Amino acid sequence: MAVSRKIRREMERTQTKKQAAPAPKKKIQPGAPAKKRTSPAQFFREVRAELKKVAWPTRNELVQSTIMVLVILTIVTLTIYAMDMVFSQATTLLTQ
By C-alpha distance, which of 51, 64, 48 is closest to 5? Predict the structure, then answer.
């Protein structure tokens, strides 16, 4: 049975949530030492590791999404333009 990419990702997320128990939150004690700062190199290593986890869209998905955005943008723009023309004509007729 073919499972869409979105459903498969959601199934994977629910599996990992079930397996990993939530870590208890630590309360900050007054007078406790401050957390050690992360070095820039460590920060970029962590960013790179997180970016590897991202489910990037395929080229085909990206093209389809871009076309969809442009079509919807055009429709909304034409709708607002038409409404503006109607309202401007209506106000012109009412103010004469």
Answer: 64
pLDDT at residue number 50: 94
Asked whether the beta carbons of 50 and 58 are under 8 A apart, the reply is: no
Token readout for 10 is: 């959601």
Question: What is the distance between the alpha carbons of residues 92 and 4, in angstroms, rounded to a whole number?
Answer: 53
* Closest-CA residue to 5 (of 47, 61, 48): 61
Q: Spell out the alpha helix ranges (H) of the chain.
A: 5-19, 40-53, 59-95
Distance CA 14, CA 50 (A): 19
* Measured distance between the N- and C-terminal CA atoms of the chain, rounded to whole angstroms: 67
- pLDDT one-digit tens code per residue, 12-64: 887 766 665 566 666 666 666 677 888 999 999 999 999 999 999 999 999 99
pTM of the predicted model over 0.85: no
Asked whether the beta carbons of 9 and 56 are under 8 A apart, the reply is no
